Amino acid sequence: MKIGPVELGERPVMLAPMEDVTDASFRLIAKESGADMVYTEFVSADALIRNIAATTRKLEINPAERPVAIQIYGREPDVMVEAAKIVEEARPDIIDINFGCPVKKVAGKGAGAGLLRDVPKMLAITEAVVKAVNIPVTVKTRLGWDHDSRIIVDLAERLQDCGIRALTVHGRTRSQMYNGEADWEMIARVKENPRLSIPLIGNGDIKTREQVENAFDRYGVDGVMVGRASIGAPWIFSELTGRGALDVHTQFNLLRRQIHESVERIDPLRGILHIRRHLAVTPLFKGIPNFKARRIQLLQTPDPETLLRLIDEVEHEFYP
Q: For 193-196, which contacts have Cβ atoms below 8 Å and span 24 or more sequence positions?
C-alpha cells in the first residue's frame, strides 16, 4: 500500500491519532513494536495559527518514528490552509484532516465529525488544503452523523475527487460516539465502490491479530488503523502485525519508559497526570485479584519515584 510516495508495505497496521495519547514517546514505542505508520495527537488549526506553545509542540517529530502523519482539525477553509502550511514546514510524511472526532468540544463547534453535517464545507476545506501543500493529504472520518445519514460511500468518492491520497473510515456514526460495534460491512461497501481508487484504511474495534487478518480478508481494506486498544499498551502492535506478543517484563519496561519520557517531556506533576490515562487501562493490571486499593495508589500517586516503585512491586509480586 502506498499513500502518494509513502510506501507502507502489504497489509499495514497503523496507530490512530488520539488526543492526550499519541505523544512522541507513545508513537515511538508503537513504531518500534511494529506499527507501519503513526499519527500525532489532534492539532487545532486555530491554536496553531495563534502559535499556542502546547499546540506547536505537537509538531515535533523524531526521525525514528517515520513515516508519520500530523493530523489537523478546524472548521474554516482559510484557517485550515494556513495551519496546513505551518504543518508542512514540520516535514511530516502526510497531513491528515480530522473529520471524525465526535467529542462535543470539537464536533459541537463544527469541526471534526461536526462537518458531516456540512459536507460542502468539508469538501471546500479538503480541496483547499490539498492545493495548499506539496505533501500527501489524507482524511479520517466516520460513516455519517447518525444512523439515518450514513453517507460515507458517496462521501468517499467526493473526498477522492478533492485530491486526497487515502481515506480512513471509522465504522461508527458521530451519534454512536464509541458505543456499539463498528460496522465493518459499511466500510466494505466503501471499498467495493468501483470508482474508489485511493487506499481505504479501516478503523474500529481492532484488538487482535485475528481481527486484523479478518479486516483484510473479509472486508478488503488496504490498511488497518488501531486506536483505543493501544492505550496503555503501545506494544500491542508487535502482536497485531504478526511479530508475536512481547513478554510481560518487556511490557513493564516499556511502561516505565513511558513514565520517564512523559516526566522529561513535560514536568514531574503534569507528566504523571498525562500517564494516568495509560495506567488506568493498561492490560498489565487487568485480572489481578483484589487489586482495587493498589490501583487507586497507582492512579493517585503524584511522585514519579513512588509510582515507579509501586510498579516494580506489582511486577515482582504478580509476575515473578
A: 193/153, 193/156, 193/157, 195/157, 195/160, 196/156, 196/157, 196/160, 196/167
CB 151 within 8 A of CB 190: no
**Catalytic residues, which ones?**
101
Overall size of the chain counted in residues? 320
| pLDDT per residue as tens digits for the range 22-73 | 999 999 999 999 999 999 999 999 999 999 999 999 999 999 999 999 999 9
**What CATH fold (topology level) applies to the domain 2-236?**
TIM Barrel (3.20.20)
Vertex 247, ends 242 and 251: CA angle to 5°? 100
C-alpha separations of 207 from 51, 174, 214, 239 in Å: 37, 21, 12, 10
Q: Which helix (H) or strand (E) holds 214?
A: helix 209-217
The answer to whether the CB of 280 falls within 8 A of the CB of 292 is: no
Domain residue limits, the chain: 2-236, 248-318
